[in-house]
Every structure is written in structure tokens, then in C-alpha cells.
Specification:
Blueprint: E1 2-3, E2 7-10, H1 14-28, E3 30-31, E4 34-35, E5 51-56, H2 62-74, E6 80-85, H3 87-92, E7 104-107, H4 112-121, H5 137-148, H6 156-164, E8 169-173, H7 179-188, E9 197-201, H8 210-215, E10 216-217, E11 229-230, H9 232-235, E12 240-244, H10 251-262, E13 265-266, E14 275-276, E15 280-285, H11 289-294, H12 300-306, E16 309-313, H13 320-337, E17 344-345, H14 347-355, H15 361-375, E18 380-381, H16 388-391, H17 411-429, H18 434-441, H19 445-454
Parallel strand pairs: 1-3, 2-4, 2-5, 5-6, 6-7, 8-15, 8-16, 9-12, 12-15, 17-18
Antiparallel strand pairs: 10-11, 13-14
Length: 479
């Protein structure tokens, strides 16, 4: 008997799952994989269009099954969802609210023939579900990126190299761009995944205790040292230690890191005993460290030790294609956390969110979505659920048009929000060349200039033909 990942059974009751799996083995000569409800997110991507058969053996299974359906639908994932339930589960009526989101609904064992016919149809050509136990590192990294930050899939090859080798990694990017997420992704895909992932917020450490926090201290090393303490580098064990905001460390404390990064050796404060750090070191910074080196605010020798493999995360305003998947993922997560029955996000809300400049990046977006989910009612996140911070951003440069609170937006407002988001996306893909961006958008350069002026996307020196970002290359053509 073979197996196929085009059809997967989702069940929290192993006995019920075994009965259904056995029936399908006899009926279609294939072993259908079984996963638990909480494992479903690891199977799905925006490309997977296979069938998930959700098994409800008891009324108590309803909450977990509803979560799977809601999170799959709110994220616009193409997996086809069907339900197979026992008499007890069906009689409870707890899953009747899902009828609009299910492809098929069967009763066990009364619909066994219909289930067999349906299973035959489920093996049509398409993209199978992921198999986390069998997939390689590139597939795992790509799956985790494409679900929420598709613009970062260009980093897959470098991330694979970083995960495979025990070298220091430097991640640069504005605050809130996802540096911790990227560091955790490297850790999770490395041989150290079973060990600890420790984040050290360097900017939050007291300057006179940084050495003791990093390396620990012996009893009596200073006035308040009543007992010996293990430092961060020792506590990380054989896992990964992320030194977040490393740029906030003073020059003296930067010097303390040189030896431990190069050789792994250090001594706790007040001790002559040399210890060895066995953890992988990743550093994150909100600033460009190369510029900091030139300004003499960051040690050049430390920079070279950190800069073995490096990643730069662009701000969210330059990654508009990430906003929709991020928003849907956050709505799914917060909807589950706050027991909200949200199955979708209205297009108008997404357009306004895509047009917002997000100075606080993903962290700010997360706060806005959390607040919107908390105030939402109904099955869809609407425009009026968004905070005034987003809806009324009129005066700020590059802001979006104001929308009256409690109103889903006029046609003019939604059209303007869409146009602005498309212009930003085209400029990003064209490397800020307005000639090429105009070609992508199918308009003249003058029309593009007028639109950019209307949406406050121009700098003071910009003019319709004095285009500072354009390389006036005759091969680019005219529009």
C-alpha cells in the first residue's frame, strides 16, 4: 500500500482516526496520514490545495476543529476542508456554524460509501501537504517564510547556509522588522534546535552589571553578590544566544565580547576560572553597524567577528506584499487567543493597512491588529474595527486618506488606498525607478508623478521630469 499527502486526516482521538484510516486503506488502497489539530499549521502553505478531513468523535472536539477551520479560512489558504463526525458530535450541533466553510460533511459510519467516493476524488493532481518530518531545511525555511513574509523568500539559500554552519550571524534592520523571528528560524533549522534559544536585550541591561549578566559572577565579586550566578553565555548551553540591540553596548563592553566570540572563553566576574561558551551567537542591531564603525561608536574588530553571515531586513513600508499574509496570520492568532469567530478580513481593511507607512514596522502592525480583533464583532474584520491611528492618518507625510469611524469607506477612499499601495509596490520592484514603475503600472511618467504628488510620496526636490531615482536609460523606453 502506498501513501499520499494530498489527503490528510485531522483527529485528536487516535481510536476514531484508526477506524477511518483503516476504512480508507481497504477502500482506496492508500495509507492516509493522520495529524492532530494543533499540527495543521505546519502542513499548510498558500500553494497547498489538498484535502483535510476533520474528524469529530465527541462534542468536545468542536473547539479544536473550529480553530483549524477558522485559521485556515482567515489566512486564505487553499486547503479543502471536510468534516466527518460521529453521531454524538453531530447531535450536539456545535459544528453547525462551520457549514459555510466546509466542502463536505459526513456522518460516521452511515456515509462510508459517500466517504469512499469523496476520497477517490481527493487525489486529483495538485500540491500535497508538507511533511515536516521528511522535508529538508530549504523547504522548512521557505514554508515558514512564505506563510507570513513572502518577500523574504529570497533569503532562503543564505538562511540554509547560516543554519548549517556554526558561525556568528549578524541581523540588521529597523526595530520591529522581525529580527528575532529570523534568528529563531536559523536556530530551529539548525542542529541546535533541541536546545535553548535565549534572547538577551542588551539595551535593557544596567551598564555596571553587563559583564556579570553576560558571564556570571562569583560569590562576593561585588557588594550585592551574595551567591554565585550563572551568566547568559553559560545558561544558553549548546543552544543559540541572540544579542539583541548589540549596538547599545558601550565600547568597554564591546571589548568584553571579543574573546568569547572568537574563542568561546570567558571568566565570570570575580573568578579566575575560565569557562567555555558552547552556544551559537547571533547579534541583532537596529542600525547599520558599518556606519557605526565609521563614526567610531562601534569597534571595528568586533564588527568583523560578527559579520560572518549577515542579513538585512527591510522596513515593512518597503514590503507591502508581506502585509496581507501578516495581517491574516495575526487575525488568526489573536482570534484564537480572544475566542473571536473571525473567518476573514474585508478587502477594504487590507487596502488601508497596505497603504499605511508603519513606522513601527511589524510590531506596530501587530498592536493595531490585536486591538482590531478585540473590538471586532461578526465573522469578518471590517474597516471600522481599525484604530483611528490608522484610519485618520491625514496630516502625516505619506499618510492614507481618513475614513469615518464605523464606516467601511467610500469608493473613492478605497480606490485611493489601492492606488497608493500599488504605486509603492511598483516603485519597490523597480528599484525606485519611476520610468520602470510607470511601465509596470501602465501609465505615463507624468501621470505617475501626479499620483505620487497627490498621495504625498514625493520629496521636496522631486519634479515631473527631474526624477532623482531614475536612470534615464533609453533602453527603458518611454510610456
Amino acid at each position: 500500500m502506498g501513501s499520499s499527502r494530498r489527503l490528510v486526516l485531522v483527529a485528536n482521538d487516535p481510536r476514531f482516526a484508526a477506524m477511518v484510516q483503516g476504512h480508507l486503506q481497504r477502500a482506496i488502497q492508500l495509507t492516509v496520514p493522520v495529524v492532530r489539530c494543533e499540527d495543521v499549521p505546519n502542513l499548510l502553505t498558500p500553494e497547498t490545495d489538498g484535502d483535510l478531513l476533520l474528524l469529530a468523535s465527541e462534542p468536545s472536539d468542536a473547539a479544536a476543529i473550529e480553530t483549524v477551520v477558522r485559521e485556515t479560512k482567515v489566512q486564505h489558504l487553499p486547503a479543502v476542508l471536510s468534516l466527518l463526525e460521529s453521531d454524538a458530535a453531530r447531535a450536539s450541533g456545535k459544528l453547525d456554524c462551520l457549514n459555510a466553510y466546509l466542502s463536505d460533511r459526513f456522518a460516521w459510519p452511515h456515509h462510508s460509501r459517500e466517504l469512499t467516493a469523496w476520497a477517490h476524488r481527493a487525489f486529483a493532481p495538485g500540491t500535497p501537504f508538507a511533511d515536516p518530518a521528511a522535508e529538508g531545511t530549504p523547504e522548512t525555511i521557505r514554508r515558514r517564510l512564505i506563510n507570513h513574509t513572502p518577500s523574504l523568500t529570497t533569503m532562503v539559500e543564505q538562511l540554509c547556509i547560516a543554519a548549517a554552519h556554526d558561525v556568528t550571524v549578524l541581523i540588521e534592520g529597523e526595530t520591529g522588522t522581525g529580527k528575532t523571528f529570523l534568528a529563531k528560524l536559523v536556530h530551529d533549522c539548525s542542529a541546535r534546535r533541541a536546545n535553548r534559544f535565549m534572547v538577551v536585550a542588551c539595551g535593557a541591561l544596567s551598564s555596571n552589571l553587563i559583564a556579570a549578566e553576560f558571564f556570571g559572577h562569583a560569590r562576593g565579586a561585588f557588594t550585592s553578590a551574595d551567591a554565585a550566578k550563572v551568566g547568559k553565555f553559560a545558561a544558553a548551553g549548546e543552544g543559540t544566544i541572540l544579542l539583541d540591540e548589540i549596538d547599545t553596548l558601550g565600547m568597554e563592553h564591546q571589548a568584553n565580547l571579543l574573546r568569547v566570540i572568537e574563542t568561546g572563553e570567558f571568566e565570570p566576574v570575580g573568578s579566575n576560572e575560565t569557562q567555555v561558551c558552547r552556544a551559537r551567537i547571533v547579534a541583532a542591531t537596529n542600525w547599520n553597524l558599518a556606519d557605526a564603525v565609521e563614526r567610531h561608536s562601534f569597534r571595528r574588530d568586533l564588527y568583523y567577528r560578527l559579520h560572518v553571515i549577515s542579513f538585512h531586513l527591510p522596513p515593512l513600508r518597503n514590503r507591502p506584499e508581506d502585509i496581507a499574509p501578516l495581517v491574516r496570520g495575526m487575525v488568526a492568532r489573536f482570534g484564537t487567543k480572544y475566542s473571536k469567530r473571525l473567518f476573514g478580513v474585508c478587502p477594504e481593511a487590507l487596502r488601508v493597512l497596505e497603504a499605511f507607512p508603519w513606522p513601527g514596522n511589524i510590531r506596530q502592525l501587530e498592536n493595531v491588529i490585536q486591538q482590531a480583533v478585540l473590538t471586532s464583532a461578526g465573522n469578518e474584520l471590517k474597516l471600522h474595527h481599525l484604530s483611528p491611528q490608522v484610519l485618520n492618518r491625514v496630516e502625516a507625510p505619506g499618510g492614507v486618506a481618513a475614513v469615518p469611524s464605523g464606516f467601511d469607506g467610500t469608493l473613492k477612499q478605497t480606490r485611493e488606498a489601492t492606488e497608493r499601495a500599488n504605486i509603492l509596490r511598483a516603485l519597490e520592484k523597480a528599484n525606485q525607478s519611476r520610468t520602470r514603475a510607470a511601465q509596470m503600472l501602465g501609465v505615463s511618467r507624468v501621470t505617475l508623478y501626479k499620483k505620487m504628488k497627490a498621495y504625498k510620496l514625493l520629496k521636496e526636490k522631486d519634479g515631473p521630469f527631474g526624477l532623482p531615482f531614475d536612470e534615464l536609460n533609453p533602453r527603458a523606453g518611454s510610456v
